[in-house]
Queue: 3 jobs
Job 1
Amino acid sequence: MESVNKTLYIPLYGKAYVSKQGILLKDAKAEEIWAKAGFPLKGKSRSKYLAYYMAMRAAVFDAWADHQMKACPRAAVLHLGCGLDGRILRTAGDNMWYDVDFPSVIAERRKYFREDGRYTMVAGDVAQEEWLTAIPQGEAIVLMEGISMYLAPDDLHTLFTRLNAHFTSIRLLMDCYTTFAAKASKHRNPVGEVGVTTVYGLDDPALPTQGTGITYAAEHEMTPKGYMDELTGMEKQVFQKLYAGKMAQKLYRLYEYKKG
């Protein structure tokens, strides 16, 4: 598997870890997959604090997806860069759902997930156009968790342009690195431990939308207090400094976009 694809094991491990602990996120599928196919992570990639962060981020995306599916029951859900994530099993809507990732990732994913009348796996590079032909036009709820940092600015802008052209209505949630984080990643980013050497940051949330028809809507918290309160004692204090303090604000952001 290519180095970018190997990064999927970092959030998978995080969700499996917290699920076993009985905090933040219940994800039996992550536990199952990790037990069978866990990638040999090392160093910062196996940090329990990073695991807590991965789980909180996933929980925020889950809650947002649930809200959007309730508000837009006819919208198709697109989980771009889905990896081995089982979000469709953690959320409550009945919307048509499309998990999209590289062919090698989807091939691995098919070992653990089964398509049905509601759920489809789509093999493709989101930086290319072909994968969109597998998804009907209309309303869309788009989840971009842990993927924007691997898309060059021109590719991210092109993706927004193609989404706008394909869908009549869009609600999109995307986390990203800042440009400071992208530069610092050469020294401190866990994805470097699985071979990723190039990531990208975004400081102006409106930049990918320029001329696309999609607009920036709001910024969301990545680590809400309610989730952090599930941690206790020294672990909570350390986590707050690493992932919820002023430094975290310089590194990670979570943006919502819309059309229609």
Job 2
Amino acid sequence: MRIVILGTAYPYRGGLSAFNERLATELQNEGHEVEIYTFTLQYPSLLFPGKTQYSSEPAPAHLNIKRRVNSCNPFNWFSVGRELQKNKPDMLITKYWLPFMSPCFGSIARMVACNGHTKILSILDNIIPHEHRIGDKIFSKYFVNVTQGFVAMSKSVLADLSLFDEKKPRKFCPHPLYDHYGTLLDKKTAREKLQLPVDGKYVLFFGFIRDYKGLDILLEAMADQKLRDEKITLIVAGEFYSNSEKYLNLIDSLGIADQVKLCTDFIPDSEVNLYFSACDIVAQPYKTATQSGVTQIAFHFEKPMLVTNVGGLAEIVPNGKIGYVVEPEAKQVADALAKFYTDEKEQEFIENIKIEKQKYAWSNMTNALYELMQEIDLDDNKK
């Protein structure tokens, strides 16, 4: 088939780019012709919370990435829509994560759908965003109305979709593994490269720091005497996308500066394996969630996880088997981390992860897309 993925890709950085590029690679490996239409402008600078939107890594040479899309320019949406309408790909895939993108994606998709050939599919990160804004529901409805089939990566998002549509074809497929960040290193090597004491105990918080991800809960847990006694260090690896002062002040007020290693620049793809290789367990103390790419990086590197019982996180981290599921409360987080070390659960969890991770192959995602295509009747969409 000829397939177009509409969304974030190189030169933009982060999990959305990683997902779309890895999906394109899988589709190509399965014999399809794939193009990614990405942005000339993704976010206006005033709306972007980080230091830069752009990657410092080399471009993926094996992918056909075209910079065509301006998220804020309706004339551009018309132009791109006409181009894709004329080219008649068999499938147009969007990765939907934020209602801000709905006017852009929805308008382009409407133009493309007019050719009567292309099937319009979306992989949903969220349909209701973590951080609510005026107009979210209207924008999401606009996008859902034109999309012909959906893949939700958590059951909570699948349920949220029913608030906007109950009839169109849909599939549940968990987030596949992020398996393109290199290989697992031995802890000693990784810790030496990160200039960490090699005999320490390390918990990793990884990814963009936003308030809903609950870093404050994890910092409060680090002040628990049980974790102090175990001499556990928290590595915070990721860029602040929320006000950094509240977290820095919390570290000071809790008196845990000697227990926290802050690595708060953006972590390039080539260094991701260092942080996951260096740690013993990955903590995601989220206050709200759907699914998370961080769990799939942890699966790839066979690292135990602590997650909170929100959204779809508990669906993929069996409690007591590959990690722990707790409520988003500091005491429960501290108790679980202490149990992990005192009960020496690391190797048991790793062996279970090796089995559990087999569920998250990329072929599961592409098969879900193929099945959706078979269920979409373009004649029905014309009615």
Job 3
Amino acid sequence: MRTEEYIKEEIGEECGVFVAANVADAASTVVCGLTHLQHRGQESAGIAAGCDGKLKCVKGLGLVSEVFGGEDVIMPVGDIAVGHVRYSTSGGNNLANVQPICVNTLRGRLALAHNGNLSNARLLRRQLEDSGAIFQGTADTELIACLIARAQVKYAELDKAVEHVLSLLEGAFCIAVTDGREVVAARDTYGFRPFCIGQLNSCGVLLSSESCAIEGAGGKVIRDIDPGELVIIRDGKVESRSYCSAAKGAACAFEYIYFARPDSVIDGQSVYHSRYLAGVTLAKQFTPDADAVVGVPDSGLPAAEGYAAQSGIPYCNGLVKNRYIGRTFIQPTQDMREGAVRLKLSPLKNEIEGKRLVLVDDSIVRGTTMRRIIAMLRRAGVKEIHLAITSPPFRYACYYGTDVPDESQLPANRYTVEQMRDMLGADSLTFLDVNRLEETIPCCSRALCKACFDGCYPIPPKN
């Protein structure tokens, strides 16, 4: 889920969803899928599984291996399972917000997993509370579950109840709901967050936030779920239909820049190739006199390869990452993230001492950690550091499931590039031109959301 948050430390993505249906021991398949989505959230993990309308949920705080790896864990049994890994952008890190959210309704038990952020969540929550609804947690997902439960008073079929609720939601969401008999899933009308469908063996169906998890679970990726599409898996068959009259396109550009795993393909675009092209494009924009190109692990590495290939400056492995330290962008507090910075990276002094470097990374949010990395490289004897960032400057908050800080906390919103260069301690600083962002994602079948870069929000925020 990329340069990690020990680099950018202030930004995280909300979660990952994985579903297995028509699969024997579906929960085990979902554990495998969630492990491949672990980069999307490390605060908590959960699985709800069952058959014939009976659901059991197992979930907890921590990694997938921690929640489901103990000898005392009794895994839920059934041929349908919905799983989730979470990083909290909406709602705090507590057990009440751990997904899937399971609720008892008029028509039985439901389990719901959700990736994204609702831009009208506060309004909907206030309306429900005014009518007597009681919430145990603070996440958007519980709100959606409550709306579906109420819709079931009027709609006996689960897909009809979900479709009614979808008409009330605004913002970014990929959801998967099960009652133990069937699965109903949907992607919002803009397609902010990735969601795809695959096949396992002859009749199994997999849904995932990223294609890499379907392949990692032994399945074959079939296609992306379209924006505004409703998918129903029941009686061994897959049905789908559009639930809106005019689906739009606003795929999150930052999925390609940072969030997604490089072996994923989202809406037709290889994430790895997009990052490589970002380096190529940035080298066309700016190439200093330098001795070596160094990428910041992990998502900065493909970009550094592309930058080196285009510029002709040799590529160099100048930074080593400790592979035994967890992804610090997931750590919920600043102190925890900063502590992990000191354990994450080490410079290869013999390779970089006395050299002029182009240091390639994917983004700068607050810049605190980049300042530390540059200071570390200076101590290792680097002569010059030309910082090349393969995204435009972060100037605006995100309301669609990305944990970008408020504008007042974003240096790019308050300072010039030259002032940021001086704050970071670099000799030069270059960002990708926002007008060239599409060059780095040429195969994406959707329009892009670039609101955190240009302030043009596809859906005006109401919170």
